[in-house]
Fold:
Amino acid sequence: MDKIDRSIVYLLQKDGKITIKEIAERLNLTTTPIFERVKKLEREGYIKSYKAILDRKKIGLQLMVFCNVTLNLHQTDYLKKFEKDIQQFPEVVECYHVAGMFDYLIKIYAEDMERYQDFLSNKLASLENISKVQSSFVMTEVKDSTYLPIP
Amino acid sequence: MDKIDRSIVYLLQKDGKITIKEIAERLNLTTTPIFERVKKLEREGYIKSYKAILDRKKIGLQLMVFCNVTLNLHQTDYLKKFEKDIQQFPEVVECYHVAGMFDYLIKIYAEDMERYQDFLSNKLASLENISKVQSSFVMTEVKDSTYLPIP
DNA sequence: TATTTTTAAAGAATATTATTCTATTTTAGT
DNA sequence: ACTAAAATAGAATAATATTCTTTAAAAATA
Structure:
């Protein structure tokens, strides 16, 4: 990753649909080197994928909730079981095993409070080994950045 | 948003680089209606943007941390001040104002613990009005889904 | 039910972009 | 300075996006 590569991933983070030609123009190069650099960045895994970013509210997902989950038992088998179960739920879009005041942080999307309650009562809380669940409801999305702070 | 539109955004969430032609083939339509539907979804804001997804570890960001931030004063002016300040930090990739046990949840990327400590001590904790900061370090990314649970 | 109006889709033509290939230049190592 | 490797330019080709015209389907109205 040299300076040119960093410029390329910066531009692609901002707009995944930017053309090779446009990147080339901005960096004062021709399409060939840009094309090959992009392919290399993809091949070597610096660029994992390209995605369309949807507006969750427009598609009807009014609620975004973070849950701090604490388990009872922490042996590997129990963790693996929980992780496998939680992945099945489409409402759960992110799940992290964390070191801190609780065990897992999960991000959930729901259409409304009723659906969230249904998820909580009938899905999450129904899993074995759950000790405590603490919900934080998102009121405002202050920042949701496109850019990783590329060192 | 009819059935076809939902199929389109589903495919675009999975792969933002999928061609109009390929979507058309999968949905047994020609390129024209797909092209127009995609443009409409973009124009009306269902699709907000397209982005390249980078591998944070490959680009040197070993640490991912969530912080629960609690403020002292909660009048609008103080909240706005904090929100404005926190947005400046490139390390902070997400920030949400939440209702729950604390005020703000922020997601941070850092190269290593040293850089994180520097961020915490010299940037975050230096802001006025901070009452409490609780860090949770991500050990495992159990799930990081491409797909919103489209209703 | 027949008729009009609107919307969606097909098919063909054109414009743009991605991709490949060959030749040239630059860079790093000896 | 010389050699080898890597990077880039420029041109040619392939694939895709985009536009345009025509046709079909659906919805609304009388």
In short: The two ends of chain B are 11 Å apart (CA to CA). Strands of chain B lie at 47-54, 63-71, 92-99, 104-110, 130-144. Helices of chain B lie at 3-14, 20-26, 31-43, 76-88, 113-124. The mean pLDDT of chain B is 96.
